[in-house]
Amino acid sequence: MSASREVLTWELFGTASRELAVAVASDGYRPDLILSIARGGLFVAGALGYALDVKNLHVMNIEFYTGVDQRLEMPVMLPPTPSAVDLSGARVLVADDVADTGATLRLVRDFCADHVADVRCAVVYEKPRSAVKCEYVWRRTDRWIDFPWSADPPVLSRDSS
């Protein structure tokens, strides 16, 4: 592990996601659906879905990070957004890779709050400055995190036509 960065490998992600699922199950929480925050939350949600036997997975696309420690002023919800009808009365587990500032999780949690029976958050990493304190956290760190799905540059860049 680098002194300045937290490094998550695919193997360690398997351990992390399983331990997150155990924390959710041990708490007695039985989500009706898992709402992933794209893109990093897709991996977490898929792993939790299998481990918690939840087949009902939804996705919210949020744009906030633009580079290493670079972000927009505020997170932006991109279409399509989940229908309130699909969330109505459900126990929702919001899944993401990291709670950094917490702004993205707050946006999603607040979006859900008026429609669902209960909303809780599960993340692989939570940083001390996060405005949202997640119910389920695998590890806490204040370092930049290298995730296995974003450690290498894209094979195809949208900027190079």
General description of the model:
There is one protein chain. The protein is α/β, with parallel strands linked by helices and 161 residues long. The protein has one domain: Rossmann fold (3-Layer(aba) Sandwich). It contains four helices and eight strands. The protein has a six-stranded mixed sheet. The mean pLDDT is 89.
What structural keywords apply?
six-stranded mixed sheet, Rossmann fold, 161 residues, alpha/beta, two-stranded parallel sheet, 27% helix, single chain
Largest sheet: 6 strands, mixed
**How many domains make up the coordinates?**
1
Strand order of the largest sheet: 4-3-2-5-6-7
How is the CATH topology named?
A: Rossmann fold
**What is the CATH top level name?**
Alpha Beta
Helical coverage, percent range: 25-40%
Structural class: alpha/beta
Q: How many beta strands in the DSSP annotation?
A: 8
Low-pLDDT windows of residues: none
- Report the order of strands and helices: EHEHEEHEHEEE
Rg from Cα: 15 Å
Distance between the termini: 36 Å
Bin the strand percentage. Answer: 25-35%
Shape: globular
| Count, helices | 4
**Mean model confidence by pLDDT:** 89
CATH architecture: 3-Layer(aba) Sandwich
EC number: 2.4.2.22
GO molecular function, one term: xanthine phosphoribosyltransferase activity
Organism: Actinomadura rubteroloni
Keywords: Glycosyltransferase, Transferase
